[in-house]
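pls design
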């Protein structure tokens, strides 16, 4: 992971050189380097339009399955509220409304998660891992291993992950790298089946998942009110 490619990127563009540390480590990978060259100027401009500083960036992700897009929210460190920066359409979906409860069920999880892995060498271009299963998932299933390896990734295929196309994951990945490099140690990812309003829940009152969804409703409502996770 030599520094020469990092310096070359910085000198060949008008955007600031990446900060040391996590940026440097990630830019040692060819795919991240290429994504940076393609996408970073556009992302810096998008951040600047909302008065967001990449060196003080924090991000948050939210998915409503019925919307079929991953929302990327951002704020500067010290700000109370996140603001919606962009929504990335899913390139494919799998499963139905409802939580993931076993390995191989093809379900996208539902609940409150965090990114726990940056994978610059993914089989699906680039990927960001979710900490599924969390303690709530293990308690709900009663299984020591209710599946795993759930990622936000490139490509257009899925058996429970969140594919954004290669172009989409490059932007998402770089913004997550920027936030981690700026000091954000915990990056939240909330996944809901649909807007958890009372009307939407009443429409699905016969679902076997309604009690589970009501358990998520408080977290959904808090973010809707404050644009900040609890």
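designed seq:
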């Amino acid at each position: 992971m030599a520094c020469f490619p990092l310096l070359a990127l910085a000198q060949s563009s008008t955007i600031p050189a990446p900060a040391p540390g996590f940026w440097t480590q990630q830019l040692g990978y060819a795919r991240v380097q290429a994504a940076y060259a393609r996408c970073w100027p556009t992302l810096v401009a998008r951040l600047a339009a909302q008065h967001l500083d990449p060196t003080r960036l924090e991000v948050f992700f939210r998915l409503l399955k019925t919307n079929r897009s991953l929302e990327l929210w951002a704020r500067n460190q010290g700000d109370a509220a996140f603001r919606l920066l962009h929504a990335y359409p899913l390139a494919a979906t799998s499963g139905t409304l409802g939580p993931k409860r076993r390995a191989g069920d093809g379900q996208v999880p539902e609940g409150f998660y965090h990114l726990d892995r940056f994978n610059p060498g993914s089989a699906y271009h680039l990927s960001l891992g979710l900490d599924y299963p969390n303690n709530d998932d293990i308690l709900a299933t009663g299984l020591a291993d209710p599946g795993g390896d759930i990622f936000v990734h490139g490509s257009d295929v899925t058996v429970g992950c969140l594919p954004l196309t290669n172009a989409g994951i490059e932007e998402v990945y770089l913004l997550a790298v920027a936030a981690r490099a700026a000091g954000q140690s915990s990056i939240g990812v909330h996944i809901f089946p649909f807007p958890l309003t009372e009307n939407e829940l009443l429409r699905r009152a016969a679902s076997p998942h309604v009690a589970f969804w009501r358990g998520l409703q408080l977290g959904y409502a808090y973010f809707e009110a404050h644009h900040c996770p609890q």
